[in-house]
Amino acid sequence: MEPAVALARQGYHLLLEKPMATSEADCERIVDAAEGAGVLLAVCHVLRYTPYSRRLKALVDGGRIGDVVSVEHLEPVGWWHQAHSYVRGNWRREDTSTFMLMAKSCHDLDWLTHLIGRPVERVSSFGGLYEFRAERRPVGAADRCLDCAVEASCPYSAPRIYLPSLKEPDRVWPLSVVTAERSEEGVLAASREGPYGRCVYACDNDVVDHQVVSLEYRGGVTASFTMTAFTPSDFRRTRVFGTRGSIEGDGRSITVHDFVDGGSEVIEVESGAGATADDGHGGECGRWEWFSRVTRRGSSRGDVRHGFGGALLSSVACRANWGNRSRTATTAMTAMAAMTPWSLPRAVASVAGGASRPGRGRSGGVRVRRLPR
């Protein structure tokens, strides 16, 4: 938070990695600093900028399925990604990093609100740490995988996760985090001595491994978001339910079901590199195009409210989960709603400044085919 505030006061435009901060108060401090200095502020919510997201947003906004009633969205973190980053890795503890929804899913919560295009009014959330704790430790398990009698049958085995990466020379992550020596000897040494060789049932992790968030938007539109470790590492999956049709999407293709004629249409979209939940998100080209455009223009017509909405909404949902009860989003969302493109003449907090554009772009293209009825 401090570097962003300091740079804003020096007159620099800000393009911040997510999360822009780990608390609502710090988010607001950054926004206040940008507003006071008259500089542009944007958050790298790149999911908005993929060809897939642009196409999906255009279908929804264009009324292709009538009025949107509800949305269902899944982030499949992946069993090995959870073990690597959120059990053994840098994001395993809330007190040294942040909570899971902020670290992994503020992109998704921002994306949902961007897709629906309405402010959130109520949030409830449930989840917890189910698997990666001492009570779930198998009989005979050791503190390290290389010493473990049951390692061969464990899906979270460090050698099983990291050694196959040696056969993929173009794949840098996650091995680059584990060891600087890209060899079998290097991986085994790191597994023997470093944090990434620890038993997943004997770590000091405390972030959740599954969480469900229910959201109610203005006008009664609802959405559900599920983040879970217990999947393959795969593309996010979304279903949008409307009054005249429904949409299913997985980051690579969009299937539109028409309730009037009973037909379906598949729109295949080039996802580009890094669009899965473990690799990244894609959309980098679109993000830079937008940021370059608005810095040259000096302002944006985009809705400022959603720029730090992902961070605030993640925080509200996390607090709802702590209490295992429904929470209104009044505190965070009132702060967001108070901001408009006119209240920040030269500063925007949204990375969705331009209108979403379907069709071809640098990141990929679109191909449409009609399914038989």
TrEMBL record:
Q: Which Gene3D superfamilies match?
A: Dihydrodipicolinate Reductase, domain 2, NAD(P)-binding Rossmann-like Domain
Q: Where in the numbering of this chain does the Gfo/Idh/MocA-like oxidoreductase N-terminal domain appear?
A: 2-44
**Taxonomic classification:** Bacteria, Bacillati, Actinomycetota, Actinomycetes, Pseudonocardiales
Q: Output this protein's name.
A: Dehydrogenase
Q: Write down the PANTHER family for this protein, in alphabetical order.
A: BILIVERDIN REDUCTASE A, BINDING ROSSMANN FOLD OXIDOREDUCTASE, PUTATIVE (AFU_ORTHOLOGUE AFUA_4G00560)-RELATED
Name all Gfo/Idh/MocA-like oxidoreductase C-terminal domain ranges.
57-250
- UniProt region (Disordered), positions on chain: 352-373
The UniProt entry's sequence similarity note says:
Belongs to the Gfo/Idh/MocA family.
Q: Which domain of life is it from?
A: Bacteria
